[in-house]
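CORE FACILITY INTAKE
Project code: CF-77B
Contact: R.S. (postdoc)
Sample description: multi-component assembly, two entities in total
Requested service: structural model of the whole complex
Turnaround: standard
Below are the sequence entries exactly as provided by the requester. Do not edit them.
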Amino acid sequence: MTIQNTFEILKNHFGERWSTSQTDLENHGHSESYFPTHAPDAVVYPLTTADVVYIVNVCHQSKIPIIGYGVGTSLEGHTSAIHGGICVDFSKMNKVLEIDPSNMSATLEPGVTREQLNHELRHSGLFFSVDPGANATLGGMASTRASGTTSVRYGTMRENIQSLEVVIANGECINTNTKAKKSAAGYDLTSLFIGAEGTLGLITKITVKLHPIPELITSGVVAFDTINDAVQAVQDITYMGIPIARLEFLDEKSVEAFNAYSNLSLPVKPHLLFELHSSEISANEDIKSFKSACSEYGGIDFKWSTKEEERKELWALRHKGYYAILASAPGKRAIVTDICVPQTKLGEAVSETQKDIVKSGIAGPILGHVGDGNFHAILLVDPENHQELKAAKSVAAKMAKLAIRLGGTCTGEHGIGMGKIDFMADQHGHGWNVMGNIKEALDPYNIMNPGKIIKRN
Amino acid sequence: MTIQNTFEILKNHFGERWSTSQTDLENHGHSESYFPTHAPDAVVYPLTTADVVYIVNVCHQSKIPIIGYGVGTSLEGHTSAIHGGICVDFSKMNKVLEIDPSNMSATLEPGVTREQLNHELRHSGLFFSVDPGANATLGGMASTRASGTTSVRYGTMRENIQSLEVVIANGECINTNTKAKKSAAGYDLTSLFIGAEGTLGLITKITVKLHPIPELITSGVVAFDTINDAVQAVQDITYMGIPIARLEFLDEKSVEAFNAYSNLSLPVKPHLLFELHSSEISANEDIKSFKSACSEYGGIDFKWSTKEEERKELWALRHKGYYAILASAPGKRAIVTDICVPQTKLGEAVSETQKDIVKSGIAGPILGHVGDGNFHAILLVDPENHQELKAAKSVAAKMAKLAIRLGGTCTGEHGIGMGKIDFMADQHGHGWNVMGNIKEALDPYNIMNPGKIIKRN
C-alpha cells in the first residue's frame, strides 16, 4: 500500500478528525523547546481506544511512523516527527472515566490534564500528586515519567500509576495491570511503558493512584549562606523523617529574578521553599524540627504559613519561576537543563554547574527539586545568536556529563526525546542495547515515535 | 561443545565450588512447596560477578539452562530445574558491600538475607522494610517482587530497589540505574528485572532503599464480628491517612490455631493486627483515630502497646502464624495460596474463599496483608492423600480465578514460577505475549530459568 492510499483510508475513516492543514502540521511539529520544527505529514484526533487501534493497524501495515501528542509541553523534542508520519493528538480523549475513592484511584483518558484531574477530584478529599511545571496531559506525563515538586514525598509517575491500557505496534491492546495494590504476576509492563515516550506503544487509558488531602499543610521559605549548607540541611531533614512534601531550591540568581518579577525582597542568597504535610496534632512539632535542622546549617529569614492564601502565593512564586527568569532577560529564550544526582553529590553538582555557567558568559539561574537531587539551570539565550546557543548547548552537555560522572542521570524528569539521546550510551552502557532489543521486539518496524530514546537505522 | 565438555570446563574453573553430589543436586531441586523435586545437573557457587559472567558465557554457548538459587524459600517452584541445567547458588555472594546513610541506601550481594541486612544496619538508625515470612535472600526477594507486612506503608521490592547489577543471557553485565533518586532516562530496566524470577538474567548486585526508624511504634490487635467489618474499617483508616505501617488480617480459624499454639485466649473472631509508625507527638492521636475508625465498624477487644518487648511478641505471633497453623493439623503439609484483589473486593474474596474451603472438606485458615488486599489460605493436606491434594489444588485454582474475576491478580507476592503459569493467559491476555516477546529478545536460547513465567517450546 502506498502512503497516499494509507492516508486516503485514514482520511475517509476519520473525516473531520483528520487534518493535513499547514498550521495544524506545524503546531504539532514541535513542543516547548529550542528544537527546530519537524512537522508530521498528518494529524489525527482519536475519540476512543478503537480509533487508536484502527490508526495503529493501518500504520503498522504501511510502516508509517506514529507520534503521540498531548499538549506539547515536553522539553526534549519528544513530539518532533523527525521521520515524518502521523501525529496522534489525544486532546479529544480527555475524559475522567471513573473516580474510585474506595480504591484510592481514578481512571482517565490520556488527554486529561493534571489540573483538570485535580479539579474533578475537588470534592473527593483526594488529590493527584504529580505536578510538573506545565499543565501537561496525564498521557504525556506517563510517557516521560514526569515528576514535580511533590515527588520527594509522593513519588514520580512511576509510583503513581496503577495500570495502563496501551495499544502496541502490532495493533493489540493490552492492560498492563489490575487494580489490586500489588502483584507478582510476571514482568512489570506498567513500569516498562511509563517513561517509554511513546516508543513502545500509545497509552489509551490510565489508572492513577490518589492520596488523601493532608490535615494540615505548612509552607515556607528559608535562606542559607551557601548551597552546601542548604543541601546538608536537606539531608538531615530527610533522615529525621520530617513529613516533607515539597522541598525546592533556588540559587541567588533565581532569587533576584523572583524578587524583580513579584516585587519581593528576599535576601539574595540560596533559598529552600518547603511544604510539610502533617496531621493537625503534629504540625507544630514538625515545623519546629524542620526549623531546628535548618538552623544547624545557618538557615535564616525563616517564614512560613498554614493559611491557604499565603501558601498558594508562595507556590505561585515557584510555579511562576520559569516566567520570572525569562522576564529577567527580555527577548531571550530558555534552554532548560535537568540533571539528577545522588543526594550527597548535589552541592558539588550545583556549584560546578554555577562555575560553568559563569565561564560560558550566558545567564543561567538554577532551581530544582533538592529533596530528589534534581535541578534545572534555565539557560537564557537569544535563539538568533549562534554564539550564545552554542555556549548554552555546551553548558547543557557538560551538566549531563557531570551528572553521569557523579553517579547520577542526564535527566531527572524531562526525558530523553532527541535532546539527550547522545548521553544514553555513556549513562547506560550495554543497558542501552537491552533497551534497543526490547524496542525491536515490541516494534520491529520502528513505527512508534522513531528516533527517540533508541537509535536505529 | 557437548554438555560433558561444558561441565568439564566449569568444573576445572570452579574446583570445589562446583558440585554434582546427589545430596547437593536434590537439595537444590525444590524449594518450600509441594512441587516434586526437579534436580539440576550441577550446582555452582560463584564468589563474584566475574564468576557469574563466566558461567553465563559458557552456558550461553552450550545452551544449557541456568537457575538462580538463594535459600530456597520460594513457593511456586521457582528453583525447580524442570529442563535440567546448572543451579547458580548465591550463598557465597553474601556481603553487604556498602551502607550509605546519606543517600539512604545499601548495596549488597544477592545472597544477603533480609535479617542479615537489618542486623548490619542496626547502628545506622535506618532499616530495610520488606519482610516476607521467610528469611529470604535479597536476590530471591528482588526476583519474585516480594513484599510483606510493611508493604502497606513502605511498598514492595518494586518500591525499595534503587538499582540492580544483572548478568543477562549473552553474558553482558548491566547496571539498571544510578543512585539518583529519580531518572527519566529511557526504559525502566530496574522494574523489568524485579519480579522476572531469573528468566531475564541473574542479579549480581542490589542497591536497596532504606527508611529512618520511626520515633514511636505502636502495635496492637482488634477483633471484629465479620470480615466485612474489618475490611470497611481498613478502608476508612487508609482514607484518613493514619500512618499505618502494618495491617494484617486473621480469620477465625487462624485465631484458633494461634490461641492453641501460643496459649492465648483471643476471641475466636476475625482480627486485625496493626502497627502505626508515628512521631512521638502524634502517636496518641494516631492510635485514637485508629481506634475510633475500628469502633465505627464494631471493633472490640482492642489491645495495643508501644513497648518493644510486647510489640515483638505480637509480631512473633504473626510471623509464627504459618507454623501455628501447621501445628493445628499434625502430619499435614501446607499449600499456600496468594491472591490480591482491589481493596473494595476484599470482603467478597475472603468470604467466597471461606465457602469454597468449607465445601472442599479440607482445613484452610486465612491470613493476609489486608491493607494491600492480599491474603493467603493455608490449605492443610496430607501429601500422600491424593484426594486431599486434589481438593486443595482445586481450591487454589478457584481462588486464582476468583481474584482475576474480581479485577485482581493470581499472585500478590509469591510469584508465578511454574505453579501459577496456567493463569497468565487469563490474567494478562495479549500482555503475556508481550512478556514472551521480551523474554525472547533478551534470552533467545531460553537458558534463563526456562519454564517459569513464560511458556516456550
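Facility notes:
- Chain A touches chain B through 93 residues (CB under 8 Å).
- The two ends of chain A are 22 Å apart (CA to CA).
Invoice: internal transfer
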